[in-house]
Amino acid sequence: MVGKDGTILEIDLSTKKVKTFNVGAADWQNYLGGSGLAAKIFYDREYHKIDPLDEEAPILIISGLLTGFRVPTACKASFCALSPATGAWAEATVGGNWPAVMRTCGIDGLIITGRSAKPTYLYLDEKGISFKDATHLWGKNIYDTSEELGKELGDNIRAAAIGPAGEKGSLISSIMIDGHDARAAGRCGLGAIFGAKNLKAVVVNKSDILPAVSNPEGLLEARKAVTPMIREKAKGLTDFGTAGGVPVVEKLGDLPIRNWTMGSWEEGAAKTSGIAMAEEFRVKHYACFGCPIRCGKDMKVTVGPYKDSVAHGPEYETAAGFGALCLNDDPAYIIAANDLCNRLGLDTISTAAVVALAIELYEKGLLDDQDTGGLKLNWGNGEAIMELVQQIGNVEGLGEILARGSREAAKQFGPPAEEYIIETKGLEMAFHDPRAFTSMAVVYATGNRGACHLEGLTYFVENRAFPGSLIGLQDDFDHHGTDSKALLAKTMQDLMNTFNALGLCKFLIRGHVTPDHIAQWVTLATGWKFDRDDLFEAGERLFNLKRLINNRLGISRKDDTLSPRLLTHDRKEGAAAGSLPHLGKMLAEYYELRGWNEEGIPQKSTLERLGL
């Protein structure tokens, strides 16, 4: 059905032993793959009891059910663990080419435990797995690591690797995919888990094994039928990438400005958009495996230590973080900061958030020149931003504290520093303001990995980029109201969970791909009888399963909240002026829809209905 009968390799880095674990058809159908199947394994084995940086702690890398199939954007794998940054469930789903290449090796996933005695990388091809000395790679950045591996192993390899940030245990470090193309398993500090295991990289070498397709002709026709619509509806992403949306987001009051304190920044948004960057900096477009959208952009780096190189261009989150959040309107420094994060292996969302926090603390006198080593942390200072990113990635100077993430860093700086952090469950908030689209308050507060926009993406529905009618909801929402927001959040969370499990890119919804399209692809690929109701039920099952993991970790209603700034501080100007989310009211409705009790714990009847 999938891979070699649903084959997952269990790898112990301490003993260099490898076992094979075959996933049964029922689990594939109920949990689909990706982060869904990973959560099932994690829950059953009670991995939550092991400290994430302990030698025996696992990291699970599972391909999406459809990854490697000729389905639009079927390119992703999920990296899952207990987060060393938050202590909660962690998943980071990433595309590029690495996940599809892993599938060509006849493997659907890896469960990695143990700790190597010396730096190691894993090498996987159709013959199996081998352990390779990575001593010569330790300390190298992501790009240099990828280039060195290519010289050793050939042009067909793809690497999932860490940089200095992960090696040194930064809790905002990423696992980076595909070298210079720089896709990231970005959130929750998963790079630190690789680092704690002395694991520099997992390298896969392309072979000729392809997933077996139940109805190849039907799947080809289904793909042909939907691809023109995807290209038409998602043309903005094709032309300018995700950063093209910066001015639109600013106009809607959704852009976080000056660490979430300002209401409008029209000129700055125009200067730092993907549209402006394309004119001066863009070199080319590129796509992940199987993607008709091609949102990836390569851009010229014109400042900083890697001046005159070409690098992956900033995504929206990075442009917003190193731009508006830090009040920096120079796109050259945004591009360079993004490139530096990618080389060092840092999550750009969390890194930009801790940089903005440091700037505000410096402004308010909670940090001084002695704390910063003489660095002038003024708003919009591109050179200071770059230097701070360098320190964070190398876990040195002020960066040694900031590399722990904003929640832990704020504790070191003393009161009232914790007033200025924007996070939920320890994860820095992605850069869409819940005061602009109040459904996002519910998404952030209840997100299983913390303040993650990708858990719901409800602002796409509220701003009509993805009509609600395509998922059985209304098309018109009051952006600042509370009516139907709990239902919107639940519906989109359930749907987005299936995207992670299937290995699909969430930008398909920008192409107006519906649950019916996706259910048809699953049916044609696997031969299962699978419809949109099955899809939503699977998504609900997965969301509740991850909630159960978090409940075991002590997470409940008390943790389903937002930072005070977003609940009590009015933006004063811009499209979101006067709007504050009524989180208590929306959560009460949300818990009832979910079938949870008032403490945010799934009720027995809900679990029985979902087969949990």
Please state how the strands of the largest beta sheet are arranged side by side.
2-1-6-3-4-5
Average pLDDT score: 96
List low-confidence stretches. Answer: none
**What is the makeup of the main sheet?**
6 strands, mixed
Any idea what the CATH architecture of the largest domain is? 4-Layer Sandwich
Beta-strand share of residues: 5-15%
Helical content stands at: 40-55%
Radius of gyration: 22 Å
Q: How many domain units?
A: 3
* Measured distance between first and last alpha carbons: 24 Å
Count the E strands: 17
Structure notes:
- By secondary structure, this protein is an alpha+beta fold.
- It folds into three domains: 7-205, Aldehyde Ferredoxin Oxidoreductase,  A, domain 1, CATH 3.60.9.10; 241-421, Aldehyde Ferredoxin Oxidoreductase Protein, subunit A, domain 2; 428-610, Aldehyde Ferredoxin Oxidoreductase Protein, subunit A, domain 3 (Orthogonal Bundle), CATH 1.10.599.10.
- The protein has 26 helices and 17 strands.
- A six-stranded mixed sheet has the order 2-1-6-3-4-5, sandwiched between helices.
- Strand 7 (120-125) and strand 8 (128-133) form a beta hairpin.
- Helix 1 (25-31) packs across helix 2, helix 21 packs across helix 23 and helix 22 (515-526) crosses helix 23.
- The longest helix is centred in the last third of the chain and has 21 residues, at 532-552.
- The radius of gyration is 22 Å and the shape is globular.
- The two termini are 24 Å apart.
